[in-house]
């Protein structure tokens, strides 16, 4: 009779543990992938100079990369859809990290995450069993304690375990022993599963983490397309940028001509000139906010200092800009000779100063 009861007890414990691990495994896999992704994202921020500061630093590296590549299509995307370009840039860097780093470093981060979860589960098992035995708790009570101890380590809803909470298990110690015995093989399965899907699932997740870390406002200057550098996406107050660009980058030209205007908006707002809106309203640059809309939300201060970067860009991609915007760099839009003498190395050296 006692042998029969013992067998029934062993069967109950096996059923209980199998079901519990069936529910635990997806949560463990998800948490390990997330934690590993966090570790890799942290390593990228530490080891890659483009990502170890703020978005302004990232943009500097993007501008350096664009100049080195000299690909106008990439520039065009950066100018007209910077958020998308930043996203792609980050994603490509993450892919490069995976290919350059090799599998050993990735496995190390994965193993660290596995060990963290394994220790958390072991700790929860031992602590729950000790308290449950002390209080003569039921299986349901042990499950409550176990889930509580896992806490924020695993997203593991207690309600998923209702079907096993009334199992007839006389000694809670048996649960701990059976769970401990199953821990290693179950974690091995999780490891194999994570390794097989690691890269394809983690690249977008790490890209998202880095993007969120380097997020900010994406509003662009209505004159020159400079990106607002505020680090808060929905910030209060005006948009602003430390450096503006020639208005030709946004297709601006002289009224009733097909000539580009190469003036920087920071010099225009100090001038006595005006600009004309689509509704033919003439707005003095000095009071550009009167134009309303996006013009009213930007703080553009008069400034005669100009980065050589965009001067070089205008010269280098003159024909491409003319083709895209159907305007010409002639007459009042003539490119100054001084701009034409700027070399790519000079603009790269200038960027690296900041």
How do the helices and strands line up, and which of them pair or pack?
Layout (H helix, E strand, L loop, with lengths): L1 H46 L7 H15 L2 H9 L1 H20 L1 H32 L4 H12 L21 H42 L51 H4 L5 E3 L5 E3 L23 H9 L1 H8 L11 H4 L3 H8 L3
Antiparallel strand pairs: 1-2
Task: Please give a structural write-up.
Helices cover 59% and strands 2% of the residues. The chain is elongated, with a radius of gyration of 31 Å. With 354 residues, it is an all-alpha fold. Helix 1 (2-47) runs parallel beside helix 7 (172-213) and helix 3 (72-80) packs across helix 4. The chain has helices at 2-47, 55-69, 72-80, 82-101, 103-134, 139-150, 172-213, 265-268, 308-316, 318-325, 337-340, 344-351, and strands spanning 274-276, 282-284. The protein has twelve helices and two strands, in the order ααααααααββαααα. The longest helix has 46 residues, at 2-47. It folds into two domains: 3-214, no CATH class; 247-353, no CATH class. Strands 1-2 form a two-stranded antiparallel sheet. Mean pLDDT is 89; it is low at 1-9. It comes from Bos indicus x Bos taurus. This is Interferon-induced very large GTPase 1.
